[in-house]
């Protein structure tokens, strides 16, 4: 099987303790990786063969090829 080279996202924490959680592909979606960011920290994440979704808890700005969005309203 050919490896999946998916899109990247950038997450910038706007507060302490922002969690970025990678979720698996397959029949059952499960957590497989968690990062905790402090205010001002940036994480660059990629969708892969193992990561089908990314969940973000806390106030952050998310940048994708589709645009920019904030987790807080």
Label this structure with key terms:
0% helix, Immunoglobulin-like, 73 residues, three-stranded antiparallel β-sheet, 7 strands, single chain, mainly beta, four-stranded antiparallel β-sheet
Secondary structure layout plus pairing:
Blueprint lengths: L7 E6 L4 E7 L6 E7 L4 E5 L4 E7 L2 E5 L2 E4 L3
Antiparallel strand pairs: 1-4, 1-6, 2-3, 2-5, 6-7
Write structural notes for this entry.
The structure is a single chain. The chain contains no helices and seven strands. The protein has 73 residues and is an all-beta fold. The model has no long low-confidence stretch (mean pLDDT 87). The protein has one domain: Immunoglobulin-like, CATH 2.60.40. A four-stranded antiparallel β-sheet has the order 4-1-6-7, with no helix packed on it. A three-stranded antiparallel β-sheet has the order 3-2-5, with no helix packed on it. It is globular, with a radius of gyration of 13 Å. It starts with 7 loop residues before the first strand and ends with a strand. Keywords: RNA-binding, Transcription, Transcription regulation.
């Amino acid at each position: 099987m050919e490896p999946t080279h998916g899109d990247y996202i950038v997450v910038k924490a706007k507060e302490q303790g922002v969690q970025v959680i990678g979720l698996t592909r397959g029949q059952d979606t499960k957590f497989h990786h968690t990062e905790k960011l402090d205010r001002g920290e940036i994480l660059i994440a990629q969708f892969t063969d193992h990561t089908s979704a990314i969940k973000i808890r806390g106030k952050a700005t998310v940048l994708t090829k589709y645009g920019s969005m904030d987790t807080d309203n």
